[in-house]
Amino acid sequence: MSEIRIGISGWRYGPWRKDFYPKGLRQDSELAFASRAVNSIEINGSFYSLQTPERYRHWHDDTPDDFVFSVKGPRYITHVRRLKDIEEPLANFFASGPLLLGNKLGPILWQFPPNMKFDEARFSRFLELLPRDRQAARACARQCAERLEGNGSTGIRGNARLRHAVEIRNESFLCEAFVQLLRKHGVALVVADSAGKWPCVEDVTADFVYMRLHGDVELYSSGYTARALRHWKQRILRWSQGEQPDDAQLIVEKPPRRRASRDVYCYFDNDQKVHAPFDARRLLQKLALDGELVTEPGVEPEVAL
């Protein structure tokens, strides 16, 4: 059976307060609230700076047992270093604590800037460096900078696998070599709806699909109509059944390896006008995955679905 996760990118936004978040809800309760409205959240603070083991532990403890996070990899690796000499920065990321999410750790997202072109050798090296399970991630973290040593960041044991997804924003990636490289390493190509600003391609390159919905008409600002949500619902169902939409926007016509099912992770990033959490809730409802919104005792939110 496939797992379908629908959620939001980040959860701490000022405009959401007294709108999605009810009046009287403490800021330190916002994650607890949001994680009971959707079944997954993309952590994006890790993109801007290294987080701490304490924060990852708190996020783990503040969410339901069956909740899943995705974690956005540092822009220092993708935007600043641009994949050059990244062994220590990659180790620092894993030493910062994402493994402490335990079984709540879903895919790790790597987003690349619009002005970064596809370099097959550099990208191949990057994919080879990515750890594919906890054991490999712990080994990677041991190569971290001295300031991060001994912080308990790899305390979760076991050897569960790790998933990775990449989001591209430059048309030079729209080539067969890139798709074949992702399929070789089992890394997902993000289906990114950006109101036409950047490429939106739907080649399936892994045993899961990762989606980011940045806005239907206006980037980060516009919501998704009922018709648009039905469009994405049908695609999610096809992907979750191991199939591919008949009208998929593809780089390579050759279909992926046949599977009985695929997990799907979908995150709304149209947060500027408070559309993201409500669009996520509506899509969960269309997929019959919505549950009751649970909050703190004494706080009764009104969430329009």
Give a description of the structure.
The chain has 305 residues and is α/β, with parallel strands linked by helices. It has one domain: TIM Barrel (Alpha-Beta Barrel), CATH 3.20.20. The protein is built from ten helices and nine strands. It has a nine-stranded parallel β-sheet. Helix 5 crosses helix 7 and helix 6 runs parallel beside helix 8. The protein is globular and about 50 Å long. The C terminus is likely disordered.
Keywords:
TIM Barrel; 14% strand; 305 residues; 9 strands; alpha/beta
Helix content: 25-40%
Give the number of domains. Answer: 1
CATH architecture: Alpha-Beta Barrel
Q: CATH homologous superfamily - what is it?
A: Protein of unknown function UPF0759
Strand order of the largest sheet: 6-5-4-3-2-1-9-8-7
Overall mean pLDDT: 94
Q: What is the H/E order?
A: EHEHHEHHEHHEHEEEHEH
CATH class descriptor = Alpha Beta
In the CATH hierarchy, the third-tier topology is known as: TIM Barrel
SS summary, helix count: 10
- What is the global morphology? globular
> What does the largest sheet look like?
9 strands, parallel
In short:
This protein is of the alpha/beta class and 305 residues long. The chain has helices spanning 30-34, 45-48, 53-61, 75-80, 87-95, 120-129, 134-141, 176-185, 226-240, 276-286; strands at residues 4-9, 40-43, 68-72, 105-111, 164-167, 188-189, 191-193, 208-213, 263-268. It contains ten helices and nine strands.
List the helices and strands and how they pair.
Blueprint: E1 4-9, H1 30-34, E2 40-43, H2 45-48, H3 53-61, E3 68-72, H4 75-80, H5 87-95, E4 105-111, H6 120-129, H7 134-141, E5 164-167, H8 176-185, E6 188-189, E7 191-193, E8 208-213, H9 226-240, E9 263-268, H10 276-286
Parallel strand pairs: 1-2, 1-9, 2-3, 3-4, 4-5, 5-6, 7-8, 8-9
Helix pairs in contact: 5-7, 6-8, 9-10
